[in-house]
Amino acid sequence: MKYLIFFIGSLAVALIIFLALTFSFEPGKTGELHLEEPIVVVVKATVEGQPMNFWTVVTQGINEAAKEFGVDVIITGPDHERQIDRQVNIINRTIEDEPPLIILAASDFYLLAESVSVAAEKGIPVITMDSGVNSTHPISFIATNNVEAGIKAGEEISRLLPEQDTLSIAIVSHIRETATAIEREAGVRQALEDRTIAGTWFCENDEKIAYDNTMEILKNPSIRGIVALNEIVTLGVVIAIEESGASSRVCVVGFDNAPQELAYLEQGILKATVVQRPYNMGYMSIKTAVEYLKGEKVKPIIDTGSVLITAENMFQREYQELLFPVND
Amino acid sequence: MRRIFGRLGTLESRFYLIFTLLFFTTILTMQIISTRFTISSVRNATLENNRLLVDELVEQIDTYVESMESISKAVIEDIDVQAFLMDSDSDSKTILEERFASYIRARDDISAIVLFRQNGGAISGDGTDPAVFSDYRSTEWYMNALLAEGKTVASTAYVQNLVPGNYSWVVSLSTQILSPDDNRTLGVLLVDLKFNRIKELCESLVIGEKGYDFIIDSDGNYVFHPSQQLIYSNLKQEPITDLLPLLSDERPLLKKDGRNYLTARSSRTGWYVVSVSLDSDLVTGWPYVQLMNALIGLVLFLIVGLVTNFITKGITRPLRQLQTVMQSVDTGEFRKAGNLDATDEIQELAREYDLMVGRIGELMEENVREQELKRKSDLKVLQAQINPHFLYNTLDSIIWMGEMDKSDEVVKMTSALSRLFRISISKGRELIPLRDELEHVRSYLTIQEMRYKNKFRYLIDIPENLMDSTILKITLQPLVENAIYHGIRNVNYEGLIEIGGSTENHDLVLTVRDNGEGMDADKLAALLNTNQHGTGIRNVHERIRLYFGPEYGLSYKSNVGKGTLITIRIPDERSILS
């Protein structure tokens, strides 16, 4: 019967309109991202370390952003930064699970490139954080501009040391093939073009090796400045300087902001430290991931910035959260 | 609109469409309004509730700070403290250090208690060498304490760096100690509260999944913010400039970008606690509410649909019935609608229609009756055409024969005339047996034969079995009359009139033939069309056609000098009857 069809037809249309309105009309929840699977973040090191440990703070930033944007995040990675093989294994396993997106802080510029290509083949977007990889696949790279950070360190040591040709400066780096180390060293060397650089010492991201290297370096009397390229190396260097009583002779400019480093900074053994913004890095990596997954355009490179901290500015209000852990 | 409705031609579908659209729009609008209203009232109720939470938070902070202030007060009023400040007595210093230490031990949320003497020297609870307290006079807490003149001042959260290598987040309560005698500054007492306690308080009372609290001072500077690093890096912003003018309100509330900023003032510290809640967190069951509303709307719509259907049917069913009845007019059948189960208007319509149809029926019957009457009267008129000349000529002949004493002939002619008239009357019947008609024409011929002596002969040759056939009366006489006057009278030889009959396809065919002078085509045509000459013949033709239909009547054949043949064709009533 014609009217019955008409009747049922209009009911069906009404149902569709009601349902469409129901599910499209959600005030306040517009533009939320809903993911089936969590985003996976592969960091360089996961061992719970010092309260101001770089990766701990990155994690705080990640968690803050995850809460704000309403996404689930899994943070994984090897125990220590030097376990490159383990990180490769971890990312390969992660790719098999096909997460919506992977955020990677690569421990090695070359060795992780292949895994990133595999992820790209599988259609999993990759964002690199802190240290990049030798690949064009990552959709965005969120990191401290390490060259610029290196320049800040180089310029500071240049300012600290009166210009004398005979004085030379040593660079103590953490790992040979990590992008951060390469770039920071490049930045330091760029700032110190007109100075004598005695050389670069590598120490496999180990405080003891850094200490030993420093003792070695101090045997050269012309060395008046040391630039240490990360937190662990800086501590090794500074401890060696303190023990050998060379703090009046050798200026040290380091990186990062472990609590001991700050104590050394206040004491004057460490003259300055270039501090990254790990919290922002973690936050921005998730924010960028969410923007990308929502289909928005993301910047290929996001610089989270760095700050040169000295004994003079370390207690300024705006740097306090950056330098000191709030959780006691 | 017209085009859409044009497709939906029936009243029923139009009704249905209009009702459906109307009710759907109405229900939907009401649903949206009611949902909005529900959401907004739920939100407002939740906000009111949340305000209680914020007040509670401020209360807790105040209570907490108050308890700390009471410690400050206790310290300041301590006689030993007064003594220490007046003059350096090493005894009281040791006692005070011990006493401060016990305060710190008792309250694990106190980070440090330090008493600074105006003219040098300090006492701290954790036994730190006073020498390390170097440039405290330039710190904010110290200067603020001097400005407050004896009142306890709370600082913002910051990293205390009085002791090198020992960095902790604190809120400092500092109080200037004045001499009771001459209002001279004796020193400043610093009580550092571990900031964690306040942070925990702020984090424990948040609203919704994504809500958070932050604290600002009256100038809009942050005392605490859970994402302070993002704030300083400009990755996150709070609408401080919008909030500041609202702070003097009794119950400040800022709504911006789907966020609610509830603000309450802590009277002890002068801080403003801002509790941020997201609209999406406030009403969490929103999709459920929507779904329920949609279902209710759908059920309503269903009911309305059924009712509309019912009402529409009620209106259109009698109309359809009426329509069916009216369509019967097409077939010439005048049916009446009778009593319909319908509204007054439609009943009235049906009644008027029935009246009209009834009237039409009556009119049509009347029309038929009148036609019949008219036809009959026409027939009568046509029959009454027996030539009066013939009558008085015949009577003259009778008179003449009477005078001549030809009594036999008088009798013969008079009796023939008498038969002629008797048959022509025939008790008013139209149809008479062929036998009678022949008798009639024979009587006529008898009279004419006597009048035109030896002028002509006649011959009637009709099979006996046709004698009972019926025929319109006075059919043959005018033809014979015509044969005499226009055929035979003017010839100088003896005329012959032959009347024959036969049946042909159930029709009765009679012929009247004469051997007179005949007619040419013009005269024949005149015979059929004018009244002048062949009035009688024409009348016969018309009467036959009127009575039996246009396929019957007369036909003629004539040759000049040879005679005329007239053929009569009428239905053989006898065969029809049998």
Describe the model.
The complex is a heterodimer of chains A (328) and B (578). Chain A is an alpha/beta fold and 328 residues long. In chain A, 45% of the residues lie in helices and 17% in strands. Chain A folds into two domains: 39-144 and 278-297, 3-Layer(aba) Sandwich (Rossmann fold), CATH 3.40.50.2300; 146-275, Rossmann fold, CATH 3.40.50. Chain A contains eleven helices and twelve strands. The longest helix of chain A is centred in the N-terminal third of the chain and has 23 residues, at 2-24. Chain A starts with a helix and ends in a 5-residue tail after the last helix. The mean pLDDT of chain A is 85. With 578 residues, chain B is an alpha+beta fold. Among the domains of chain B are: 78-198, 2-Layer Sandwich (Beta-Lactamase); 385-577, 2-Layer Sandwich (Heat Shock Protein 90), CATH 3.30.565. Chain B has helices at 2-7, 11-77, 79-86, 90-106, 140-148, 195-204, 228-232, 240-243, 279-282, 286-327, 344-383, 388-403, 407-425, 434-451, 476-488, 521-529, 535-548, 573-577; strands at residues 110-117, 122-124, 152-160, 168-178, 185-194, 212-216, 222-224, 253-256, 259-265, 272-278, 431-433, 456-461, 470-472, 495-504, 507-514, 553-559, 563-571. Chain B has a five-stranded antiparallel sheet with strand order 2-1-5-4-3. In chain B, strands 7-6-10-9-8 form a five-stranded antiparallel sheet. In chain B, a hairpin with a 2-residue loop joins strand 8 (253-256) and strand 9. Classes of the chains: A alpha/beta (328), B alpha+beta (578). At the A-B interface, helix 1, helix 2, helix 9, helix 10 and helix 11 of A face helix 2, strand 3, helix 6, helix 7 and helix 9 of B.
